[in-house]
Sequence to fold (214 residues):
Amino acid sequence: MSSFKLIYCVVPHDKGEKLTRAAMESGCRGGTVMMGRGLASSNLSAVLGLGESTKDVLMMIVDEEVKEAVKEAVIRSTCREKRKFGEFFTTDVDSVMKTGNITEGTDMQGSDAKMEMINVIVNKGYADDVMAAARSAGAGGGTVVNARGTARENDERFFGVHIVPEKEMLIMVVPSDKKEAVLKKIQELRCLKEPGMGIAFSSPVDDFALLGKK
Fold:
């Protein structure tokens, strides 16, 4: 296992700061809150325009020894919120760079995680198609974070300015036994056949928990 953990929390918009405060009071040194878009957990809800909402995606790197304290503090801070208020999960971190120094983690092989995080980065406008394909293979909902690509030397230019395509990053947590099927369905999408249209990768997840009332 790694000596560092990357903690993810996905909660309604404007609630990320509340979780950050709870985490910092229990040993976390800080985090990053990004705005995302939650996607409906079923195709029918998506068609009806139901189930979508604005999300805060909170990312925090913590030392392994304080992970449990941070987890308990975050979950406790949401105990009065509605059921299925959000999600909490962790992944291992290979190395951490702080002010130019890289601290290496330990070998992560042999993880027995029962959940997997799948990240899919696609050109803007395709995240919903990816989510629909993932649902057909057993995934539930997901969260979309707006992003952008980085310009390279040979990227297209317009009036001498690099044209950097807008991206969407879709984050899903699925049971490990469904990971391969979900990735296969995503790979089969026609909109992703062209080079440069997207990339997908997965990571084992630990400590998965639903936030809010039990």
Summary: The radius of gyration is 18 Å.
